[in-house]
Amino acid sequence: MYGTYRRSSTPNFWRLQHLDILNDVKLISADTLDSASMGEVLRKSNPDEVYHLAAQSFVAASFDQPLYTSDVTGFGTLRILDEIKKFNSKIKFYQASSSEMYGNERTSIKNENSPFHPTSPYAISKLYAHWITKMYREAYSMFAVSGILFNHESPLRGLEFVTRKISNGVAKISLGLEKDLKIGNADALRDWGYAPEYVEGMWMMLQQKKSDDYLLATNESHSVRELVEIACDVAGILQSKIISSKKNYRSLDVNMLQGDYSKAKKNLKWKPKTKFKKLIKIMVEEDIQRWQKWLKGEQFPWDAATVNNNL
């Protein structure tokens, strides 16, 4: 198994260490801004399948870095596809598309045929990547799949995302390490699922005889406010410790996202198993355990010890 990492970035493999698979993955430095780099990765790994998950994936940051986001998240996908076409067009390709592509499109529940109305540089870049993947599939008969995944979370989620920001924040408050936590729009509604189940769905897409696009979701939407309520209950703290601040709002937000996974259920035999409340419980309890270990001076793979929650 091969994996890539950015040459210019500080090595950060704590997730692989946490999963105890760091020694099982052969790492190759790569850069989606550099076509030659992607071609070299293909030559070194000679893969049967490519899962393209690399992106500037934080929506808020895309407003501050629209050109960089477009180049990495949008055109980076084109560079990889074109290198695959030249190296071995039989390689199966997975593109990580996003529910953010739907934006504020008026249909309440989205499926693979719902129109797109992206509302951020990130979402627009993902939409370009989505359509260029479809074009390569149709124009060059490549096995190229786009998985339109709605929010998928786990204790390995980055701290910049609201689910982990809240699970980490309530964990610190419960242990007396912080007094409060500032978040953005508490009324935003999202369809949240458990990441390991979605990764299984990604793999299932590439095991089909024919390539196609699939949406993975839970067909449920919950507000950030509900997330806070559950997280505070698990951590045993008052909800008043979590403060919704206009400073943390996005420049242009998506009010609601909810997906219909019927196609994946029918064709892939895939369905989500972990309910929203259990998902949040898993994340909060893991972050509490991490901070407890930190207080005891234990050393372990982790990302949170020096982060300011209120940024």
Keywords:
Rossmann fold, 4-stranded parallel β-sheet, alpha/beta, 311 residues, two-stranded parallel ribbon, 14% strand, 12 strands
Describe what you observe in this structure.
With 311 residues, the chain is α/β, with parallel strands linked by helices. It has a domain at 2-149: NAD(P)-binding Rossmann-like Domain (Rossmann fold, 3-Layer(aba) Sandwich). Helices cover 41% and strands 14% of the residues. The protein contains ten helices and twelve strands. It has a four-stranded parallel sheet, with helices on both faces. Strands 1-2 form a two-stranded parallel sheet. α4 packs parallel to α5 (121-140) and α6 packs parallel to α8. The longest helix has 22 residues, at 66-87. The protein is globular and about 55 Å long.
